Amino acid sequence: MTAGTDARNPSVRQPVSPEPDIVLRLARPVSGEGDDIRQDRLRVLAADERRRAEDFLRSADRDEYIRAHWLLRHALSEGTSVPPGDWAFTRDRYGKPRIAEHLGDSREFSLSHSAGVALVAISTGRPVGVDIERLADDDPPPLRSCLSPAEQTTLSALPGRDRHPAFIQLWTLKEALAKAMGLGLRLPFGDVDFTWRDGRPVLRPTASVRAPELWMCHRLDAPVGLRAALCVRGPRPRGRTYPRSTREMTTLDGFAPAGVRQADGEALGSAAFRRRHGVRLAYVSGSMYKGIASAALVARMGRSGLLGYFGTGGLRPEQIDEAITRIRAEVGPDGPFGMNLLAHPDQPRREEQTVDLLLARDVRRVEAAAFLQPSAALVRYRLTGVHRRDDGSVAVPNSVLGKVSRPESARAFLAPAPAHLVSALLHSGALSAEEAALAPYLPMADDLCVEADSGGHTDQRQLITVLPEIVRVRDTASVGRSVCVGAAGGLGTPEAVAAAFLLGADFVLTGSINQCTPEAGTADDVKDLLQSAGVQDTMMVPAGDMLEIGARAQVLGKGLFFPARANKLYDLYRRYDSLDAIDEPTRRQLQERFFRRRFEEIWQETAGYYATRDPAELARADADPKHRMALVFKWYFVHSTRLAMSGSSDRRVDYQVACGPAMGALNGYLAGTELENWRARHPDTLADLLMTEAARLLRTRLAALVRT
Fold first, then answer.
1. CATH pick for 283-522+672-692 out of 3.40.50.300, 3.20.20.70, 3.90.1150.10, 3.30.70.360
2. Minimal CB count within 10 Å: which of 201, 268, 566, 688?
3. Residue 475: what pLDDT?
């Protein structure tokens, strides 16, 4: 079943199994689960299971148990004629559950659940075990009796903050092995010894595990705050080659049926990207100016195990601080989220203030936008806290996603921080000697996102040309070869998302489509307009913050006068040297119809703003009438954004709504479905839909190409 398609069932997912003949199913709670859903699931369970459920004192534990056993029964029924309620189970002499003999089904299974999440593994005759466990700050320290001497030494060498997650991961591996062996807790965990080879867990021989080569053990990608593992008895069936990574699953010669058949949205893109950010999909919701990518939107993504960036542009530091507090309260201390850092080459102090706040609040992810080259503030953020661990590896606490649309900008993010900036920061005391010394070994970014035909500021690049070029730039970089390259712009349908991955994207980032969700920080009136847009309903206008140089932005055009008025203002700026030089009919039109205010009123408001924020800008305007005219015109661009965010319906024609054609493409795709109305389009719902359907398209269309 597809995640999120049935509101009466939990969100069931199909993780890609590292063992292609093993079926994995995962279920997590979703909003709106009430007593009616609980009763529906209970009816599927056997009488003894229902009695066991009623024995739980805490309702959360009861719901978790019911969800897990409901999931097991539905997973076993997939592809069979046995209804979920008809499965019966027995136990062997060690207590391991098995399918009752009279059903004639020789499959083996394993079930685990924790923190509301259930995980099932089903095999065709191979002993299998699976385990999922919760990470928590209040858990007890690692039990030495559960670790081999070698494991104790390895954990002791880790930094304090890394020991508990490493212990929980080891515990899941041992628990999964114990289940697969059929011994449960009779297996002495202290006599089970795991080491790591190429990032993968490997069993070593001990008295309790005399033939470790018979067991295939794997870490599994798990939702945020959890760790999971799978163990299965080998050897693998002969004569078949299985992909070693999710990347290979869509590129095997002959369209490998075992690997690709099981691929879903969680298999697309880079596994390294998912691990780095602790997310379940290689999918990001990007920032949008003035908190349109709101705290509610970012928190919703984080709670669903997805990464979103808050839009800090145009906000005061105290507003950004408040957003961080709210997001953290909802996603938890380790939940995935990030904040936007907007380049201000003409006002570097604004960047510095934002970085001061982000570092003070321990924000570990930044989306760097509009940077042609790294600035001192961005370099300070990237390098602060960098240190060498005891094992010689370099710890980099702060992650940067650089948005780029040109190869030269990509090269700047793939290279180490500019030496002159590092030197200046070192001498000012902003960086330590160790942080500066390690700078040459680190790229400026962990991730790059190639922006194509996006809403707002855009070069209107074509993804089909610029993405492969920047992937090639990455592949030849000296220190940035491990950087993931993502795609953004025009991604509003599964077809577009699938194409991005075929072009080499490690992840995808969406923007415009998330503006038309209940959580977005813009007015409902604007969302109604966005929902009615088609792919043809955007227009190019001058970018208000860069009016003088003629930079362009893409906005919604349907039913609005703003695009035409914005373009006329730019034309007037190019033709005249001052407001006084403009002919009287045009002056009257601007004041009465465009602005609905007199020039003098607008200037007083503008001068008041710059008197406290940037007095030098005010002095320049007093000396240069053309610059003063530019600031008055810019007021309209700011005002039009405020109108859209507040939903001033009497001024609807003046709404400025940044938007790309992805919005219209999504509307067309969702027409006639339950998601046609924006009130049902939550950002994580769209993420699951686009990724799952993109995976389906890749399976079916690649298979068709191979057959032809």
1. 3.20.20.70
2. 201
3. 92
